[in-house]
């Protein structure tokens, strides 16, 4: 890893995210075309039908071309291990972006059906292209919407087979202030079961304080949480926290 890769502040594509922040909150993209470039890069450089290579190629793009907000390789290893522990038949990700996290889930759980909810139709389209190239488009489904859109997305998931106690694994990686209310909406539907695992990225950076407080308050009662100290994606300067929480029921 070069100095530039270790220290994100030396990378223009990282600094550029400050300028693109408003664009990102409206569109889910940073406004300089990096997400479309990443999908095109996978199509041009990763071996078709090779899931490992698609994941590695997105990592390479994020390190060498333009910074991406995928969970990344370091935190991705934590995600993989949690998925393996959950051994899911049905997994849900909130926040698809370019499709990277969903591919890691699909790789760690080869028999699972994986759903990913994304509010940006443009990101959904790019992710589907990446999944098609990687050969996993038949196992990963992107639903365009949000959990808080008045039941539309929740109903679409229900129509796709989400039912009481059927959701084994949940990955929260979307709007940080939506982690807790969206988890509560999923609990209200009764889809999680005792033993379901929930992984939350970016709990320290940019941070999801209400979610963190909720999991700490309920430790041992309704949730059993491990706090993984790690780094934000694609660099080693900025610390981050990934929470892995096992549902103990009745919350
Ligand atoms: C950090 S990225 C997700 C990265 C992805 N999980 C991965 O590891 O490859 C966050 C994504 O969440 C999307 N997003 C933001 N708010 C959302 C919401 N309320 N519901 C669904 N998606 C949302 C953004 O458009 C963006 O694509």
TrEMBL record:
<protein>
    <submittedName>
        <fullName>Catechol O-methyltransferase</fullName>
        <ecNumber>2.1.1.6</ecNumber>
    </submittedName>
</protein>
<dbReference type="InterPro" id="IPR029063">
    <property type="entry name" value="SAM-dependent_MTases_sf"/>
</dbReference>
<dbReference type="GO" id="GO:0032259">
    <property type="term" value="P:methylation"/>
</dbReference>
<keyword id="KW-0489">Methyltransferase</keyword>
<keyword id="KW-0949">S-adenosyl-L-methionine</keyword>
<dbReference type="GO" id="GO:0016206">
    <property type="term" value="F:catechol O-methyltransferase activity"/>
</dbReference>
<dbReference type="Pfam" id="PF01596">
    <property type="entry name" value="Methyltransf_3"/>
</dbReference>
<dbReference type="InterPro" id="IPR002935">
    <property type="entry name" value="SAM_O-MeTrfase"/>
</dbReference>
<keyword id="KW-0808">Transferase</keyword>
């Amino acid at each position: 890893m070069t100095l530039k890769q270790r220290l994100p502040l030396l990378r223009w594509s990282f600094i550029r995210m400050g300028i693109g922040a408003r664009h990102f909150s409206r569109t889910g993209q940073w406004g300089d075309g990096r997400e479309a470039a990443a999908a095109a890069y996978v199509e041009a450089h990763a071996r078709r039908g090779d899931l490992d290579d698609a994941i590695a190629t997105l990592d390479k793009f994020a390190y060498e071309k333009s910074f991406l907000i995928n969970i990344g390789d370091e935190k991705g290893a934590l995600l993989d291990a949690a998925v393996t522990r959950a051994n899911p038949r049905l997994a849900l990700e909130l926040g698809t972006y370019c499709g990277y996290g969903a591919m890691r889930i699909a790789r760690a759980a080869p028999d699972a059906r994986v759903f990913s909810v994304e509010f940006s139709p443009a990101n959904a389209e790019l992710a589907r292209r990446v999944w098609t190239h990687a050969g996993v488009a038949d196992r990963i489904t992107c639903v365009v919407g949000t959990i808080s859109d008045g039941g539309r997305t929740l109903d679409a998931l229900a129509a796709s087979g989400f039912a009481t106690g059927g959701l084994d694994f949940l990955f929260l990686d979307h709007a940080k202030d939506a982690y807790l209310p969206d988890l509560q909406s999923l609990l209200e539907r009764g889809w999680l079961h005792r033993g379901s695992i929930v992984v939350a990225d970016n709990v320290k950076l940019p941070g999801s304080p209400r979610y963190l407080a909720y999991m700490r308050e309920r430790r041992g009662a309704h949730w059993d949480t491990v706090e993984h100290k790690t780094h934000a994606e694609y660099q080693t300067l900025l610390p981050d926290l990934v929470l892995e929480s096992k549902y103990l029921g009745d919350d």
